[in-house]
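Input.
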Amino acid sequence: MRDFGRERGATQEASPQRAVPEEQRRGRPKDPPLLTLFEIPIVVSIPVRTSSQTPLRVFVRWLLGNQGVIKGHKPHDAETSSGLLRFGLFSILLTFCFLRPISVLINFALHSNLYSHIVLIPFVTLFLIWRRVTEAPLTPDRPLRTLCLLPLIPAVVLLSGYWLNSFPAGSPADYLSIMISAYVFLAWSGALVFLNATTARTLAFPLAFLVFMIPFPDFLLHQIESLLQVGSAAVAHVFFQIVGTPVFRHGMFFQLPGFSLEVASECSGIHSSLVLLITSAVGAHVLLRTPWAKLLLISFIIPLALLRNGFRIFTIGELCIHISPDLSHSWIHRQGGPIFFLLSMIPFLALLGLLIRAERRQRTAK
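Output.
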């Protein structure tokens, strides 16, 4: 008799085993990793290690040109990218902690003629950081953590003084000058903690550019306005003397033929001077290379501001003499600032062009 049980067992032993994919035999998951599901060449080209590379880290490395996707930029090492990521997370946390004063600052800037530029400063800073961070050389430097105390100490002093009422904030500008100064100092301190020395030096200007977020305290604003007011009046007096206009000056008052003219604090031109200073700082950083050229361009703003505002006072005075004294209250007095600002850009751009050519000749000579 045939042993069907033995034949059945033999048949089971002789049956081939189910084929196991090679990936499962190696211990890999059957499905591809999450990052390879996206048909994006830059993401697929990055080696995937699901245990250590999160999508956020991959995105940050792509943004910083980790694989050289930005033409002409060198890839960053893991230490530099990690430091930038930690500094970015620290900046987000710091901004969240200062959310109330920052919201007050935005509302204050949107309703101020002097500080309307503040809302643009963070965006310009981020652009400058993005522009410079891909150019940082690859050096195994360590963070200069000991230097973080230099900006940390004034930040602690400002915050402690405000909370203890040692620095009374009698106006919104005083309050914001204290809080935003502390915010900027803490950002600088975080940069020294998380960024290596080379990256910190590379981002020195973008981080220093944050000072233009800080409103002037009232006492400092009055001092700056007084200096610009006195300097503009002196320049206008020289213009009147050059053209031979009879004029008698007593302080901020000009006695001209047929009427008198006062140079008030509103005529100091501080807003246009501040905008011109910011423009010169960005232009010097982007277009110039040597420190002497950058310093010369930025220093040129002070005499240029006095010449521009003095020429404006002189123009208004001459129009009042030769046409009508009522022009002292016309649109050219109240809303003519942009015209004279554009005129001041002519010598500014001329000097910038000369400095660029001088640097070019200096490089070719070497």
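The radius of gyration is 32 Å.
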